[in-house]
Amino acid sequence: IQDLTEILLPAIIKRTEQIRSIAQDKFNQKKNIVSYAVGSHVSLRNPIATSALEAKFVGPFKVVMKNQGGAPILQDKTGELHPSKYPPEQLKSVSEEPTITGEEAHYIVEAIMAHRPIKNKKGIYEYLIRWKGYNADEDTWQVFEDFEDVNTIISYWRKLG
């Protein structure tokens, strides 16, 4: 019994620590730990992308702060905080190059309310848009080319069946 406590158990503990250390080193070599600075711009991996036509990333978002665990807290272009928190592996760094010039505002699509065909253009539609932060009186008809993100249209057609 003395051999067990003086020789065998310390040897088992030492070997276990060696194996754990080797496993940790392998894990660290495979994982690229990414940290995004506050103020940087990122895109978020699209969690519901189901087809090749859908964008793999959505955004851009601005990193406004980090939570206690270090996960970035994101803000969209309207200034609202993104409701979910995502690990850095779900994000991709993007450069924020202005796409709107002058004093133009940036509007976010809340929902597509309806569609209608465009005269003399077979298979081409206009979409009635409800803008985020606005009421039904301010809905407008927009063509496909006006959308920054085609996922909104794809989701609309999926809902219709």
From TrEMBL:
Pfam families: Chromo (PF00385). PROSITE patterns: CHROMO_2 (PS50013). CDD domains: CD_CSD. Residues 107-161 form the Chromo domain. This is Chromo domain-containing protein.
